[in-house]
């Protein structure tokens, strides 16, 4: 470009951050400063977001301080949200809570949601329950908060509390958003739901899934049912693991591929089991898989994901 301004630099920094390339995002930030382009609040959102998704706690703290002390930018709710998310992902939950308590603005749904989800992932029941209830005070019909609260109780095998949450959701007519994955093949978009059989090539897709799982088991893959937070028998849980992104991937593996990359879009966060599955498939089948979930791009290649298993 003949002229590069803060908008073009910030756009690239945010793009690298979203694709899990924190090193490039940070390197670009330093190049931007070397060329005497003054960063703005949006630039720092990208840098802090990159630190958050790469677990760079010390670097994130330094950027947050420099934003205030070196560049005179007053942090907005979005910047505090990035820092809360950074602490949450790194399992510094008490630090996250301390920051929430000292913010100059009241925390919003997104900030409470970050803390709530992190508590679920890290098994912090009491704080997670508190965060979920704070979120529900702001948005009583928030389906995600009710589902996470139910999952927190399920991890503790508090099935009575799980039942109460589900009854409340049923009474209010609130349902969990259904997972959905899309893949484009030969300029046609194909949509998959969990364990569905609606696709005209469903038989082939499930045969491919069985074949892939058999191959992966030879290299140590064991389907994980730890993330299935309902009171089911083990065999029933295995059926639940026919997640939409696995079906989309197996459809992409059928037949001759013209491209060396399979791209999948999912409306919800990818689960731990599917994440491991995608990594192994990328290595075993020598195929790059790019998956966009609710907030993040995952690039699977050679058995490694761009998120470094930190998402």
TrEMBL record:
One BP term from GO: RNA modification
Record-linked Pfam families: DYW_deaminase, E_motif, PPR, PPR_2
Superkingdom as given in the UniProt entry: Eukaryota
GO molecular function per UniProt: RNA binding; zinc ion binding
Claim: Phosphoprotein is one of the keywords in the record: no
Keywords per UniProt: Repeat
Residue span, DYW domain: 220-311
PPR repeats mapped onto the chain: 5-39
Protein family: Belongs to the PPR family. PCMP-H subfamily.
Record's protein name: Pentatricopeptide repeat-containing protein
Organism of derivation: Glycine soja
Lineage: Eukaryota, Viridiplantae, Streptophyta, Embryophyta, Tracheophyta
């Amino acid at each position: 470009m003949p002229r590069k301004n803060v908008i073009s630099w910030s756009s690239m920094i945010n793009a690298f951050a979203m694709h899990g390339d924190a090193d490039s995002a940070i390197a670009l930030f330093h190049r931007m400063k070397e060329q005497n382009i003054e960063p703005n609040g949006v630039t720092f959102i990208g840098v802090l977001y990159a630190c958050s998704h790469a677990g760079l706690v010390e670097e994130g703290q330094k950027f947050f301080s420099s934003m205030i002390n070196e560049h005179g930018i007053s942090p907005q709710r979005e910047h505090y949200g990035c820092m809360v998310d950074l602490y949450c992902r790194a399992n510094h939950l008490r630090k996250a809570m301390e920051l929430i308590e000292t913010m100059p603005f009241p925390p919003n749904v997104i900030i409470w949601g970050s803390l709530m989800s992190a508590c679920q992932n890290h098994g912090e029941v009491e704080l997670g329950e508190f965060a979920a209830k704070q979120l529900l005070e702001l948005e009583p019909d928030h389906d995600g908060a009710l589902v996470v609260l139910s999952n927190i109780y399920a991890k503790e095998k508090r099935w009575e509390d799980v039942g109460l949450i589900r009854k409340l959701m049923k009474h209010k007519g609130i349902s969990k958003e259904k997972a959905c994955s899309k893949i484009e093949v030969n300029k046609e978009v194909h949509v998959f739901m969990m364990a569905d059989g609606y696709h005209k090539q469903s038989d082939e897709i499930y045969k491919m899934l069985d074949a892939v799982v058999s191959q992966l088991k030879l290299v140590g893959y064991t389907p994980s049912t730890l993330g299935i937070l309902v009171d089911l028998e083990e065999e029933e849980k295995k059926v639940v693991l026919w997640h939409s992104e696995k079906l989309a991937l197996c459809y992409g593996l059928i037949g001759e591929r013209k491209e060396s990359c399979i791209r999948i879009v999912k409306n919800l966060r990818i689960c731990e089991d599917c994440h491991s599955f995608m990594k192994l498939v990328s290595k075993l089948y020598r195929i790059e898989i790019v998956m966009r979930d609710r907030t993040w791009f995952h690039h699977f290649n050679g058995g490694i994901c761009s998120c470094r298993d930190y998402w």
